[in-house]
Design goal:
446 residues
């Protein structure tokens, strides 16, 4: 056997990712799909290392253990969907647990196999109105942030009676936190914050960033825009808003709606590629959106030169600041101690393999201690909101909530605002979750 193929469990080679061959006929072939599902499920059943990550693996193992043969061949293939439905593509099984990922010869990529199964089902069956609504973040955001309508939407979403009606009619769990909508969007708030800065290229960074606001950032967490502008400008980094954008496509990816992902890519990539050509690096406030451009789109469109150009220019915001810090360009003129911080590290941040840069930057602030919780919040984009999966999302979040409550920190933060709200909603000690960039602005007293 070739030396280039790893046959040892737990090999030391870095995981590699193969492009997603979604344009081929075999990708959509149901028999081929079920054969691959059975192969991978059989390997997972024999390993079971990922049982604690999410509900997909317990669901699979229960199906096996309750079958007549106690093996995967005893599981009805119609029940494979039960496993697929529990996967929300956090990618942590691939990145942190599975010893059989490429370059291992068994070539296990559980999340992207689940994506394939979701895509095949979506193409054959479509999806519910609720799922379409929850994943159409751009359209919902535009409608819900019309002045006065935003007030009405927020009032209804905080009304217990309305939420119970919404649960019965739309399948949105009445106890799940849903985001606020703001007519004073991020785009409006930063409109007059642009300033000319003589930026300096250092290492991998140009010193000029274009800020991809994201749907959630623009409509639901607009205050983050001001925080990013203040912090980056304070560090002599030119920052401007991406002139126009649509949803990155991650919510549609999680549905398996690859055609909608392609449409979002066609709308966004030309705008972002033009900015890269003009010398800008790219950042976004939500890890899932960053990951979409760093990983998922390049794997879906591996031959698109503009996609690859954007991939190389996209950074997590604290990755960017840390790269500048390594070159001696990060200001450390902090005026405010932050005290004890509990930091839930979002899965889609961990998948980027850049380390925990927000922790490293905040630990530079005197009188500050950052304690990381590297476990999934269970939220996903919509998993915690759906009535059929909310209880599972709560169970997945409990270990993080328990540790945060035991520490009773001065601040609780997460790079993912949705994950932060989900954990805060379950916590007995967290009143208001925060974003790391908000605390960094506070430390600078900006």
């Amino acid at each position: 056997m070739s030396d280039s193929i790893s046959t040892k469990e737990g090999s030391l080679e870095a995981p590699t990712r193969h492009p997603i061959d979604w344009k081929s006929e075999s990708f959509w072939d149901t028999d081929n799909l079920y054969h691959e599902l059975e192969r991978v499920f059989d390997i997972c059943h024999g390993c079971r290392r990922c049982v604690s990550l999410c509900n997909a693996f317990p669901t699979l193992f229960d199906l096996v253990d309750e079958s007549e043969t106690f093996e995967v061949d005893g599981v009805d293939k119609a029940d494979y969907k039960k496993v697929v439905d529990q996967c929300y593509l956090c990618d942590m099984c691939y990145m942190s647990k599975c010893p059989y990922v490429p370059p291992h010869e068994w070539n296990i990529d559980f999340p992207h196999l689940m994506l394939r199964a979701k895509a095949v089902e979506f193409k054959k069956e479509g999806t519910s109105f609720r799922n379409k609504m929850l994943s159409d973040t751009n359209r919902v955001g535009k409608m819900a942030t019309i002045p006065l309508i935003d007030i009405t939407v927020n009032a209804l979403n905080s009304n217990k009676t309305f939420r119970k009606i919404l649960e019965k009619t739309a399948g949105v769990h009445h106890q799940a936190p849903v985001p606020l909508y703001h007519s004073n969007t991020l785009r409006k708030r930063v409109k007059n914050l642009d300033k000319s800065i003589e930026s300096k290229a250092l290492g991998r960074t140009t010193g000029k960033v274009a800020f991809y606001a994201t749907c959630y950032g623009n409509y639901n967490s607009p205050e983050l825009g001001e925080d990013f502008y203040k912090v980056f400008q304070h560090n002599d980094i030119q920052i401007k808003l991406v002139p126009k954008e649509q949803c990155c496509g991650m919510p549609k990816l999680e549905l398996g709606d690859l055609d909608s992902v392609a449409k979002a890519k066609e709308a966004n990539i030309p705008v972002l590629a033009k900015l890269v050509d003009e010398g800008y690096d790219l950042i976004a406030p939500v890890p899932s959106c960053v990951l979409m451009y760093k990983q998922e789109l390049p794997l879906l469109f591996p031959d698109d030169e503009d996609v690859l150009k954007v991939q190389k220019a996209f950074f997590d915001p604290f990755e960017y600041l840390h790269l500048r810090h390594k070159e001696g360009a990060l200001r450390t003129d902090f005026n405010t101690e932050l005290g004890d911080i509990s930091y839930q590290v979002a899965c889609h941040l961990r998948v980027q393999n850049i380390g925990i840069k927000a922790r490293d930057i905040l630990n530079l602030v005197p009188g500050t201690t950052v304690n990381t919780e590297e476990r999934c919040s269970g939220h996903d984009g919509t998993y915690a909101v759906k009535v059929e999966s909310h209880d599972h999302a709560v169970k997945i979040a409990r270990p993080v909530v328990k540790k945060v409550d035991a520490r009773n920190p001065d601040h609780f933060i997460s790079d993912c605002p949705m994950a932060a709200n989900h954990i805060a909603n379950l916590s007995e000690t967290v009143d208001k979750p925060e974003h790391p960039i908000t605390l960094l602005r506070m430390a600078y007293s900006l």
